[in-house]
Amino acid sequence: MLDRHIHAYVRALFGSSAVRVGPFLAGLDPHDAGRYRNYAVPDDGAAPSADEVAALVTAFAGRDRIPRLEYLPSACPDLEAALAGAGFTVEARIPVLTGRPGRVGVLPVAGVEVAPAATDDELWAVAGAQAEAYAQPEVTVHDRDRLRGVLDRGGLVALARDAATGAGVGGGLCAPPHDGVSELAAIGVRTAYRRRGIAAALTAELTRACPEVGIGTPFLTPAGPAEQRIYERAGYRVAEEMIHISR
């Protein structure tokens, strides 16, 4: 049932930006054309017709976005074949890890303080660290406001600071929950501070705080094996698989 709960969570996360196209719900960011901010999630058990897949492609193309889906194949096992027949190619098969908030301890890092972020200055610091970590060209008011929106809707944001200078060196978030489910995401650390355990410390801080905002099942998708080992340090374990697929 975890697959269906995660799909329901993502559909709720899309909010007012969502576009219904047949058995798909597409989240299309009006401010950011990045591929990871624009994707569709299928209805559970979806087995779309060729026309329905074509309509999905048209919906993305009409907004100058790459047609993409992110979904758990265990919830709709017939979908991949339908997408492949329409020219979609699998980008990645990614493990989905879940954590248990009550079993996560503090992971201290020498010279670094990790704590919740709430003020505008703290959110700017998180946005700046994430921008460097993910090679974004600049930080904008929209980036800060996106993080403010996470907090306003019941999610979590955490900031790692250099204890000596107070500079923001890393950040991450847990998105607003839906029925107790939330994605832990956007963990980023500035280049000069990597390989010190800061990403694991941010993960632990966010996970420990989950019960405070009603999150019982935090999940995440690591970028690769190295990142997966970081999250496993904070107690996360593989529970499902997710497909990223695009045309």
Structure, briefly:
This protein is of the alpha+beta class and 247 residues long. The protein has helices at 2-14, 50-61, 79-84, 120-133, 141-152, 198-209, 225-233, and strands spanning 18-21, 24-27, 39-42, 68-71, 89-98, 112-116, 156-162, 168-174, 181-189, 217-220, 237-246.
Textual characterization of the structure:
Helix content is 32%, strand content 28%. It is an alpha+beta fold and 247 residues long. It has 2 domains: 2-87, no CATH class; 101-239, Aminopeptidase, CATH 3.40.630. Strands 4-11-5-10-9-8-7-6 form an 8-stranded mixed sheet, sandwiched between helices. A 3-stranded antiparallel sheet has the order 1-2-3, with helices on both faces. A hairpin with a 6-residue loop joins β8 and β9 (181-189). It is globular and about 60 Å long. The two termini are 28 Å apart.
